[in-house]
Each structure stands twice: as C-alpha cells, then as structure tokens.
C-alpha cells in the first residue's frame, strides 16, 4: 500500500463543442475513495475546464493510482466528468468523477442538494479480508444512528478492530472521511465502501459525508513521563509471550508498547505451524526407510565445526538408542530438531542459540496449551519443515496463539500503549538500558523508564524496502510480502545505534505458496498447512518439485515455471467449510480465488491446462502414496491419495516472508555488542533477532522461535538486575 500526494495538472485545455457557463475560479471537493478521501481541485474559465488536480489520495499503488493518473487527462479532453472508469479501479474512478462533478456544479452555480435521507435500515455488501462483509446501516432523521455487521468473520484484533473503530467514528461524526486502521486496510476499505452503498440506497450522496474527523490525541508541551518495571516493545507473539511470562514471574508493572493500532504482529497472520519434537503426539507416525536414510545421512557427514560435531554425536547417540529400543514410530528429539534446523539453514546459524530453542520449544507448546491455545493432536510436516513435527491449532490463522496470550495479559493487568512508536532506548551513565523514548502520531514525546530493562520484540524488516534491498539486493523492490505493515526493522535500527551486533542480515526467506498479487497467506482450499496429501503443478498440469523440499528450493523451482505460478491440488478429504484463515471456501470458489470441479478433467479445463497432464500427475502421485516413494523428485512425505471429489486447485506464488537476520543475542536473549558482550538491560526475541534460522528458516520454526525466546527474554530480564 502506498500513500502519496499527487498533483496532476493539465493546463492546456482542449476545445469542446459544448458551451458551459462557469464562474471562473478554483474549486475543491472530497469524495471517499478506496482507501480514504480523494481530494480534487478543478480550475475553470467562463466556458472551459482549465485544470484538474488530484491533491490528496491514499489509493492503492498500481490499482487506484491508475485512475488518479489517467482520469484528470480524460476529463480535460472530454471537458466533462462523464468519462469511462479505469478498469480495475472503479471505486477510485467513481470518487474522482463525483468530486470533479461537485466542483463543476459549484462553478456553474448549482447548489448541493440538502441532505435528505430515507429512514430505515439499508444494506451494503463488499468482500472483506475473510469473506463477504454485510453491513446494515440504520438511518433516522438524516443521520446514521447504528451500523451492524451480521455474520462478519474478520480477524480478531485486525478486521474487527477496524469495524468497531470506524463504525464508532462514522456514527459520532457522520462522515466516511475516517482513517483506515493500519494493518487492517482491506477490512477498513471494504467496511467504508459498504456503508457508502447503504447511504446511496437511502437516496443519499456520499459527498455529503466527507467532513474531516477531529484529531483525538491532543498535542501537549514537553515530554510525557511514565515508568514500568519491564518495557516490552512490540505486541506480536514474542512481545505477548514475554509479557505473560513476566506476569507469571510476579512482575507487577509490565508495559507493552506497540506502534500499530492493533496487537498481534506477524504472528496473527501466520498459519500457526509450530515445530516441536513431541513423542506423545508423534507416536502414531511411522518411521519409513526413507526417513531413516535422512537421519543416517545427517549424522554421517563431515562436520564443519566442533559444535557441529558434538551436535551430530548427540543425535547419533539418541538414534542408536532409538534403534535399540525396537520402536517403529517416528524418531525425533530436540537434538535432531536442532541438527535439522542448523543443516536446513546451510550451517550458518548459531548452534548454541539453536540448541536453546530446540530444548525449550516443547515446554513452550505445553505452556501455550495451559494458557488456552487449542493445540490439535495431529502432527504433520508443514511446508519446508523437513520433518513430521509440525503442530497445528484449531483456530483461524494466528488467533489460536495471540488470543489466549492477549486475554491472559489483560487478565493479569499488563498495560498496553498502542499507536506509540519507540524511537530510541534510554541508557544511564553506567551503560545500562533503563527505558525508551517514543512519539505518538501527533508528535507528542514520551520518556518511559523501566526497572528491569527493555525487551525488543519489534519483528523483522520485510516491509522496509530500503533495509531489505541493502541487506538482500537480489530481491526486487516491488516484491510483495506476507508481513504486516509494521515490520520495518525498528528494533534493529535502534539497537545498532548503540553498538549492537547483527548477524545474517542478507538472509531473507521467500515463501513459495502465497496468494499471487497480494502476497498474503490466505486463500487456500485446505484447512491444514501440512503437505502430506497435496501436490503442486505448473500451468501445464505437471509436477515440477518435491513438495516437501526446503522453501528456497521450492521458490527456485516455481520461478522456473510459466508465469512463476503453481497450483495446490487436493481433494475434498482435507477441505473444511472454513480454511485456516477463517475464509469460507465456497465463497473463495465463487469469486474465483479457488477452483473446484467434480472431475480432474473439468478442473484442468477451468485452469486452462491439458487434462491428460493433470490426470497423469494425480495418478502418479496416488501410486507414490502406495509405494511411499517418489522416483521423479524424491518426495519423502506421503499420507492420503487424491481420489475423493470434488477436487480443488489454489493458485500460489512466492512472497517475501521472513527475515532470518537481525540482532545478535545470547542464549538467554541478551542483545550482544560487536565484541560479543551483552548490552546491560537490553533483550530481544523473535524476528528482530538473527542466528537461529541461518540462511533458510524451516517452516514451522518461526512461531516456535518467537514464543520460546519471548519467554526466555522475560525470564532473563527479571532475573538480571
């Protein structure tokens, strides 16, 4: 999303065959666009439109921006606001045209019709983030008195926050000219558009609902002072796990500061895949010869360091004990999880950090369950996970993680300051971090001190294009990301100003199976994120990769396919009415984001691919499931055949997903300087750190890392005074 101020001026008017009677002058008008008000300025002579300028807009780059660029020219040429809308930007086009027409009406002496709305309940409907957003607007005596969204499934903390905030402001101020809720732009836009539809059904003109909302935050002189026992910067998974852990340890005054107006961070957008060696839940999984070969290969290679040698020896000892036991179930242990994480990251990660992570991650999973996280019993292998240790939660997206943590934090009186951006840390004369400075959106300054120091849980830098391109210039600046807009590397920027060291900043992971165009994780037909019973084909209907490959290998393979796109193919056996992101699958089918057919031939026809190729690919896979062998690509993971109609296809494409590099920390989550020494009072957890994932993060390791090191950081901060 790009917010700009654009002025497009066409000074040379083209003569028109029609004659108009205008009062010469300059006129302005604002109409609600896709992402907010679109302000237009029109200059007229006595009989001509002399110029059209779009003074202010927040429309989506590459979509609404096309209308902003094109329509003023076309209006000048036609000498009329009645021009054709720009394809794909109908909302923005309508806003510009209505605003221009309002200016022309003013110039020609036409008075805006007084507000005269019909009383009653009027409906609007726009597709939101998770499905159709149905809006019921009650109008009485020319005012909006109530707004309801029956059956809405927008994400808690994101979409539902946007609905509550915007709805309250629309009713209070009788305007659509309200800001979108950052991080929930899709829902915000859809909600305001649906309200606009309802107003028009009540014979209203949305041009009459454009007055600005007064600033809610007052500007004050000087700095606002505050104090806490422990300050946590960031309200995502790492920050919330740190906050709840600190409360569990008896810390009285825990303050979480978040620059976004919502909590959850990237964790709220994830698929909740959580890797942990879990003997109890893995006991039903078989240990195949192929999986045995993978272990033997890993413990037999030449070590690259003494740490690597010792880790291999530890895995070997555990594996030999496993073989001696005669067990037929899946082999796994923290040491094997650590070795796969190290090897999967191309052996550039920090083994002490990786061991700390793997040794504590199952305890974190059990702790999350104790807080109410709905962990499912089934264990699978998520995309890029390399082993069947991926746990799932019976909840949409990351809600199963964020909701119990946030609710627990509120119950234990954790303080939250949202919409407050931390600019720096405060360091005393002994070199210890004792607080932070921050600013709010109107420029108020804050100085907040802390007894137990500061935990940075600010996330990665996927949305900071400048930092991303500097660190990983092989990525194109226009690449989309799965991340929330607040992932701009703030914690890294702050800490490095004070000598903090970084590691692996050039390692940025691209996720292979995101929604084409948007980069979002949503839009899938299947409920689970495991790849046990899914194949991926190209536009020719052919498999082109082992679906359980490392993510970087998967991405490289997709990029070689026609249009750099592929399709998840699965049958109805793993499809639920709602997918992992609470989206209605049948609705996704209706709007063309998912394809569905009773036969593979019909599915292929919808996709424009050869039916015989798709049928052959599925038949080949079904034989592979029986034989537990993939002779073409070497896939190791098999579960169910694709045989039960209807069949589904979901378009997928790569999207920037995770920044593996970040602040260098110790195993107890202390931020280290360039000499390897801890910076007193400064801790970090989650994607703001580096060293765990190496050059390639295994799928399902991020959530586990974020929550585990959030807990470790809190324990360390509380214990080290």
What does this structure look like?
The protein folds into four domains: 25-107, Sufe protein. Chain: A (Alpha-Beta Complex); 120-208, Sufe protein. Chain: A; 224-507 and 660-719, FAD/NAD(P)-binding domain (3-Layer(bba) Sandwich); 510-655, Succinate dehydrogenase/fumarate reductase flavoprotein, catalytic domain (Flavocytochrome C3, Chain A, domain 1). Helix content is 32%, strand content 20%. Strands 13-9-8-17-26-25 form a six-stranded mixed β-sheet, with helices on one face. Strands 19, 20, 21, 22 and 23 form a five-stranded antiparallel β-sheet that branches. Strands 7-16-15-14 form a four-stranded mixed β-sheet, covered by helices on one side. The longest helix has 20 residues, at 306-325. The radius of gyration is 28 Å and the shape is globular. Residues 1-19 have low confidence and may be disordered.
Mean pLDDT: 91
Cα separation of the termini: 43 Å
* Strand neighbour order, sheet with most strands: 13-9-8-17-26-25
Uncertain residue ranges:
1-19
Q: CATH first level of the largest domain: which class?
A: Alpha Beta
Give the secondary structure arrangement, pairings included.
Layout: E1 25-32, E2 37-44, E3 49-56, H1 64-78, H2 90-107, E4 120-127, E5 132-140, E6 143-148, H3 159-173, H4 185-201, E7 223-228, E8 230-233, H5 237-248, E9 254-258, E10 274-275, H6 279-282, H7 289-300, H8 306-325, H9 334-344, H10 351-370, E11 375-380, E12 390-393, H11 399-411, E13 415-418, E14 421-427, E15 433-439, E16 445-450, E17 454-456, H12 465-471, H13 490-496, E18 502-503, E19 508-514, E20 535-537, H14 551-559, E21 566-571, H15 585-590, E22 595-597, H16 600-607, H17 611-627, E23 647-659, E24 662-663, E25 670-672, E26 678-684, H18 701-719
Parallel strand pairs: 7-16, 8-9, 8-17, 9-13, 17-26
Antiparallel strand pairs: 1-2, 2-3, 4-5, 5-6, 10-12, 11-12, 14-15, 15-16, 18-24, 19-23, 20-21, 21-23, 22-23, 25-26
Helix pairs in contact: 1-2, 3-4, 5-11, 5-18, 7-8, 8-9, 9-10, 10-18, 16-17
